[in-house]
Each structure stands twice: as C-alpha cells, then as structure tokens.
Write a structure and sequence with these properties.
By secondary structure, the protein is α/β, with parallel strands linked by helices. It has helices at 30-37, 50-65, 89-97, 113-126, 150-153, 208-229, 247-257, 268-271, 278-283, 287-291; strands at 2-11, 15-18, 41-44, 74-78, 103-107, 132-140, 158-168, 173-181, 189-191, 204-206, 239-242, 295-302, 306-313. Helix content is 32%, strand content 26%. Helix 2 (50-65) packs across helix 3 (89-97) and helix 6 (208-229) runs parallel beside helix 7. The structure holds coenzyme A.
C-alpha cells in the first residue's frame, strides 16, 4: 500500500507586514533583511490561531481532493505553537472540520514538522492503519517572537498548509521519507521557556550562524542519501521543495546540488520562515506542476536539531 497525495490547501492570516512596516525601534532595514535572508514580508496572526489556520488549510485541501471530512481517519498536525498546552491542536481541527472517527494528534519537530508528520502518516497508511489522512503544518510563530530582538523576529511568520494522503495499491505516492535528530544541539535553537520550566511558552533564542551552517550540511547529507537510496541523480528531480528558512541557505543548496534553479520552489520572500507550514506553503506555488507528476523532493532542518527528506512520485 502506498500513500498518495490527492489534495493540497494553504491558509495565511489576513495581515501582511513588509520589512518597512516593522517597528522602528528594531533598528533594522529592508535592505539588511532582504539581503541576508531573502525575506520581504510575512503574515502575522491577529484574530487567527494555529488551529483556525490549520482548519482553513485542511478544508481547502479536502475541497481540492474532493474528499469529505468523514472519510478522513487520521490527522497528523505538526506545530510548536499550538492553541493550548492540551488538547492537541489536531483534535481542535478534528472537531472544526466535523471528523469524528479515527485519530488526531500533534507532532513537535519545529521547522521539520511537516516531513515528520508526513513520515508518521505515510507509515500508518503503509501499515494499513489509515486509509485517508490529513498531514498539516501550522504555526503562529509571531506569538513566540521577542519583538525587541532584531536577529530573530525579522525571520519568521505565520501560516498553515495541509495535504490529503490516500491509501492506494500503486507505485505512486510517497516513495521515501527519512527523518533524523541530534539532541546535542538542542540549545542552539530553543525557546527561553516552557510549561515545565518557566510556566510560559518562552521566546525564540537562536545561534544563527551555527544553525545556518548545520542547515546547509544536513541539506547536503540528506539530499545525497535520498538520491543514492533511490538510484537517482539530481537531474531526475522535477521539483525540490526546501524548508524556507533563509534564501542564502537555499542558494547554497542550489549551488552544491547543481540542480536547475527553476525546479526549486522559493517563497520565503512573502511568508518568511513559517516553520512546520513552510513546505506545504512553498509547494502551493507549484500546485499544478506537483499534481501533474514527476519526482518531488522535500528537505527540512530545524530545532532539535531535527531534519529530514522525502521523495514523492506522482
Ligand atoms: N537588522 C540589522 N542588523 C542586524 C539584524 C537585523 N535584523 N540582525 C542582526 N543584525 C546585526 C548583528 O547585530 C550583527 O551586528 P554586529 O556585527 O555589529 O555585531 C550583524 O548584523 C551581523 O550579525 P550576524 O548574526 O553575524 O549575521 P549573519 O550574516 O549570520 O545573519 C542570520 C544572521 C540570522 C540572518 C543568519 O545567521 C541566518 O539566517 N541563520 C539561520 C537562521 C535560520 O534559518 N533559523 C531557522 C532555521 S529552521
């Protein structure tokens, strides 16, 4: 049994903030942010929450797939900015979309969340434990940004993306999904608190330079491994969807892999880094090309450190 993507949906908050609209006290500039990161604007949640954005994206994906919520028997939702400490944001989405059977739960893998959630859902489907699944990445990172720290707050934004997977007895769909983590780097990208330590959610703290280097290294290693394990060369990849953390990291990826840059999806300029939502949001830029077929590769890296890769063939 294989899991085949049959629908994709996204959602973003109403409010978009460009670099020039950021608070003056930050002492930053559009020029600095755009040249160091590629970010030009981001969406910021006001009335939206992670669950409301996830619900909107899920309903859009179900509409695209022409699947009714009652037919979904699994939701795996990746987020580190859930609506509540508990219950899971996935169960809020389950209620919101009117799905009563099956199971819904969250996974926490920060910026690699979407690939981690995809791996879980794909495994459930391959084991025959689910037939139709929603894989969702949804975040409101603006809520855990220290808006006085210019080295982090300019980098992130809010949004959600959802994919419907269907069990099919075919060779199409998710061919390969591999996830990794190394907790020795837990302190390099971390929040300043949490329920059990400070009784708050905390704010993002990051060793930017180290994260940058590690991301490039892990993109390289996991892409090499994916190509090797699937007897492919970079020329066999039709679409490459990297996590949208920083345009300079993506440019490094283009350089070392030798991929034709027209095949690489980039929208960090308009969403900034939306963590678990970034891969489906980037994929939405080429929705028709994705569903029209080919070899599609996802790559991600983030807090943990946690990283991963996936190959989908449609
Ligand atoms: N505006 C203006 N200046 C800024 C700034 C901002 N928003 N943020 C930092 N600076 C300043 C610093 O204070 C520093 O000034 P100094 O030289 O006077 O001390 C200078 O710019 C250089 O800072 P540095 O941190 O060395 O810049 P950098 O070139 O490494 O770029 C990042 C910083 C954060 C953009 C870069 O390290 C990065 O993208 N890292 C990866 C982050 C990431 O993707 N995280 C999520 C992964 S999932």
């Amino acid at each position: 049994m294989n899991s085949v993507p049959i629908g994709l949906g996204i959602a973003a908050p109403k409010k978009s903030v460009d670099n020039k609209e950021l608070p003056k006290e930050l002492d930053t500039s559009d020029e600095w942010i755009a040249s160091r990161t590629g970010v030009r604007r981001r969406y910021i949640a006001e009335n939206e929450t992670t669950a409301s954005l996830a619900t909107e994206a899920a309903l859009a994906a179900l509409g695209h797939a022409k699947v009714s919520p009652e037919d979904i028997d699994l939701i795996v939702l990746a987020t580190v900015t859930g609506d509540y400490t508990f219950p899971s944001t996935a169960t809020i989405v389950q209620r919101n979309i009117g799905m009563s059977k099956g199971v819904a739960f969250d996974v926490n893998a920060a910026c690699s969340g979407f690939i981690f959630a995809l791996d879980v859902a794909d495994s459930y489907i391959k084991l025959g434990k689910a037939k139709k699944a929603l894989v969702i990445g949804a975040e409101t990172f603006s809520k855990i940004l220290d808006w006085t720290d210019r080295s982090t707050c300019v980098l992130f934004g809010d949004g959600a993306g959802a994919m419907v997977l269907q069990a099919e007895d075919s060779n199409r769909g998710v061919q390969y999904c591999k996830i990794y983590s190394d907790g020795n780097y837990a302190d390099s990208l971390i929040t300043s608190g949490g329920v059990s330590t400070t009784q708050t959610a905390g704010f993002i703290k990051m060793n930017g330079r180290e994260v940058f280097k590690f991301a490039v290294e892990k993109f390289r290693e996991s892409l090499d491994e994916l190509l090797r394990d699937n007897n492919m060369t970079i020329n066999d990849v039709d679409l490459l969807v990297p996590h949208q953390a920083n345009l300079r990291i993506i440019k490094e990826l283009i350089k070392f892999s030798g991929i034709d840059e027209k095949k690489v999806l980039i929208n960090v300029d308009k969403y900034a880094n939306t963590s678990a939502a970034s891969i489906p949001l980037a994929l939405s830029e080429a929705k028709d090309a994705f569903f029209s077929g080919g070899n599609i590769v996802f790559l991600s890296m983030g807090a943990g450190y946690a990283w991963g890769s996936a190959l989908i063939r449609l």
